[in-house]
Write the C-alpha cells for this entry.
Amino acid sequence: MGKNHLGEFEEIVMLTVAILHGEAYGVAIIEEMESRLNRTVSIGSLQVVLKRLEQKGYVSSEFGEATNIRGGKRKRFFTLTNLGKGLLKTSRDQRLSLWDAAPDYALKAISI
Amino acid sequence: MKSQTNISPPTLWLKFFRWFCRPEYAEDLEGDILERFDERLEKHSRSKAKRLFILDVLRLLRPGLVKKIEGNQSLNNYGMFKNYFKTARRNLLRQKTYSIIKIGGFALGIAVCLLISLFIKDEFSYDQHIPDKENLFMAVRGYNENGNIEKYTWFPSPYANAILEDYPEVIQSGKMIFSEGFGAGNANIRKASEVTNYYEDGFAFASQSIMEIFNYPMVYGDAKNALKEPNSIILTKRKADLLFPGVNPVGEVVVIDDNTEAPYMIGGVMEDLPANSTVKFNYLRSLEDYRFWDGEDKSWGSNNYQVFVKLLPNTNLNELIPKLKYIDEKYLLPEYLEAGYSDAEEAIETMSTSLLPIADLHLKSADIGDPFEKSDIKIVRIFGLIALFILGLACINFINLSTAKSANRAKEVGLRKTIGSTKKHLITQFLTESILYSLLSFALAIGISSLLLPYFNQLAAKSLYLPWSSYWFVPILALGSLLIGLIAGLYPAFYLSSFRPAAVLKGKLSMGSKSSKLRNSLVVFQFTASIILIIGTFVVSKQMQYILNKKVGFNKDQVILVQSPYLLGDNLEAFKNALRTIPEVKSTSYTNYLPISGANQNGNVWWNDGRTKIDASISGQNWIIDHEYIETLGMNLIDGRNFSRELRTDSAAMIINETMAKQLGIADSPLGQRITNRSSNRLIYTVIGVVEDFHFQSLTAPVGALAMRLGKNYVTASVKLNTNNLSATTAQIQHIWDEMAPGQPFIYEFLDQRFGNMYSETIRTRNILTSFSMLAVIIACLGLFGLSVFMVEQRGKEISVRRALGAKMSQIIQMLGMNFMKPIFLALLLAIPVAWYIMKGWLNGFEYNTGLSVSLFAFAGLTALSIALITISFQSIKAGLTNPVDGLRNE
C-alpha cells in the first residue's frame, strides 16, 4: 500500500486523464481540470507529475499526428495503464470503506 | 487561425525554452505552450498573452524537465569520461606488473619529493616567527686576511653599548654568550635547598635587552625586567617544569655548577623556543653587572660576545654599515696604540663590521663563524634539485612505460577513431588516465611518506610531520597530482592519439618501436642522473671515511670525557690518584681545552718576546693544560720535554705546535725561545717543547698555531683507557666518583663520538644523499625493469625461435642485455664529467680531502652497470628459461 500511494494531485491528474479518455494531452488536461475543479494548473507542474506517473508506470504516452496548429508540434497523449487503473480503483475503494465506517453524525456539518 | 500567423510568442523566451528543455520532452511541451498562447490571444490582450507565455516558460524550469547535466552529448561529454575511467581501470587490472611499476615508481618519486619539500619548507621557516624580524640584525665582524674576508660574530664586551650610544639608527642592542669556556653550554643546576644536581644543556648568557629585542613570550614574570637583576636567570617552560613542576618558580633560588657563592634567582619563565629557532637555549643567565674578569667591561681586545641590534624601521643598511667602522677606530685603536702594537693601524684597517638580518641567520650565513647550528642554502638547493631529479625520473618511467605499451592500446585507438573519436577526445582520454594514475600514486605516496617520515626525521635530525591541518596542504596535493598527471601524460597522450586507424587496425604498427629513440634517450637521462648521484654518494662517503679515520695527531679512541670534575671539590687530586689504581686506566687529565669543537678554544695573538713593536703578530691558540694532557691524548712530542711537576719554573713554560714554531720563525731551534701574547697581563713564556701538529678544529680548515701552558681547568676530565671492556671500566670509574662526589651526576662521553659530532652535519648530509640516490636508482631501475619486461614480451617469438634453433641461454641474455647496455654506457660517459665537476667543487671546501681518483669513477660506473644488468637479466633469464613451445604455440 505505502509504496503505491498516490498524492492528491496525482490522483486528480489520473482521473482527468481517464475522463479525457484518449484525448488527454497537456493543454486538454489543464483545461479539463480548470473547468471542473476551478483550479489553475501550470504546464510545468502538470508535466512534472505526468513524467513521474509515467515513470512509475501508471500512465503511458504516445505522440499523436502533427497538425498545423501548435506551431506544427505533435501532441503527447496520455492513457492510463492497467496498473494505474487498478491503483485508482483501490484508492476509491479505500476511501469508500472509510466513508462507510465513519458514523453519519460524525460527518454531519453543523450549520453555522 | 489568423491571429497565430500574425502574432508570434516572444522569440527569445521560446529559444530559452528550447535550450533548457530536455530534448525528449521538447516537442510536445513546445506545442502545449504555443497552443495555450494562441488560446490566450483570443481571450486576452497581446501583452498579457505574452506575459503569461513567459510565466509558462519559467514554470517549466523544473528539475525533471531541464536537461540532465551529464545526459547530453551536445552539452558535454561527461558520459564519455565514465567510459574513460572504465577503460583505465580495466587496463590497470589487466597488466598488473606494469601498473605496479608505473604507480609504485610514481608514488615513490612523489613520496621522496614530498619529504624533501617538507624538509625545505622547514629550513625556510627558521626564525620567521620572530616578531619585527625585519629590523633585527646580528653584528658580524670581517677580518681581511690577504683578500679573504673571514667573518666572525664575536665582539668585545663594551661593543653592544657603544653601537647603541654612537648610532641613532640603533634603538636597542644586546649581547649574548654561548661559549663553553664561559660556562655556557652544559652545566649542573640544582635548587638551592637541595643537593642533587641536574646536568643540563642549553645554558647561555644574555643581557636584559635581549629579552626585549627578541620579544620572547613569557609564562611567568615580566620580560621587561626578568634579567635586570645581576645573577638572575630565565628558564624555558620545559626546564621550569623539570625543576619546579607545576608552580610559578619566579623568585626561587638555584645554584649553578655548585657555585654557592653566587646563587641565581629565577627572574622569569619563558615559552619554549620553537624548534625552528637558530638562537637556541634552555637557560639564560643575566649578563647585567657580570664580568668574567676584572676590567672586562672596558676591554676592547677580547672578543667573546654575540651582539644583536634592533634598528629603526626602514634604516638604510648601505649607509649604516660603512659607518660602523668608526667604532673600531674610536675605541679599539687607542687601546692597541696604548699597548704599543706595531701593527695597530693595519690591524684596524683589516677589520670591518656588517649586520646580518636575523632571518638570514639560518640559511645564508655559512661563511660566518658563530656558535649556532645552522644550515646552508646550498644544501637546501641541492636537495631541491634532487627532489626534482627524482620526480623527473618517476615521470620518465611513466612516459616510457606508457609509450612502450602503446601497441596494446593501438587497436583501441583505431577503433575509437573509427567510431567517431577525434584526436581531441583521445588526448582527453589519455590525460584522464594519467591523472587517474597520478591521483592513485599520490594516495600511495602519502602512505609511503607517512611510513618513511620517522626514519627521515631521524636521518635529518628534524621533527617534520605532514601538515594535514594546514589549509593549503590538501589543495596543494590535489593541484600537484593534477599537474604531474598532466605533465607525465602529455607526451603519451599525443603519441597514442596520433595513430592512424586504418594502419593500426590492419596491424601495420610496428610494436611500439617507433618511439624507441625517445625512450632510449630518456633512459640515458635517467641513468645519467642516477650515476651522478651514485658518484656523488661515493665521493661524500669516501671523504667522510677519510676525515673520520685521518691521523689527526692525537689519539681519540678509548678516551672518555667525564664532565664537571669540579663537583669533586677537594677530592680532585684524590680522584686522579684513585683512577690510577684501576689497571685499565692509563692516565687522567683535567682540562676542557680539547681538540674538538664545543670544547674551549682561546685565540690570541703572539710574538717573539721583544718584537711586539717590530713584527706583525701571528694568531694562535692559548690553551691551559695539565701535566698528563699530552700523555692522555696521545700527542706526539717531537722536540723538548713535557711539563714537569718538579720544576717550578714550568709555570711560565710553553709547549707549542710545529705550525706555531714555523710561523714565529723559530722552527730551527725552538727550545728556550721566549714568546709573548697580547693579553692585559702580558706574560713571557719559554718554549720547552714542540708537539707534532694535531687537528684541533674541523678538517675544513688547516692546522693553526697553538701554544699550551700549565693551568687549572676543571670543566672536563679526560681519562685514557686501555681495555676492550669499556663499560666495566666506566662502571669502576663511576664507583669512585660516587664515593668522592656523592649525589652528583656522573656524566661521561667518548672523545671519538665528540670528534664525530664535529662532522655530524656533513655525515647527516651524506646519509640523506645516500638514501636519496638509492631511491633514485631504485626508481630508474623500476623503469628499466618495466622496459625489459616489455622488450621480452615483444621479442618473445623471436627468442623462442632462437631457442628452438639452438641458441644458448647466455646468447639470449647477451642479445637482450646489449640492447639496454648501450644507453647506459652513454649515460656513464655523460655523467662522469658532470659528477667530476660538481664533486671537485665540493671537495675544495675541505682543506684535507681524498681527491678524486679514476678508480672511484670506475667503481661507481661499475656499480651502475651491474645494477642495470641485474635488473635486465632478471627478465632475460626468465625469457631464456621459458619453453620455446609456449612462445610459439599461439600462432
Remarks:
- DSSP finds 28 helices and 24 strands in chain B.
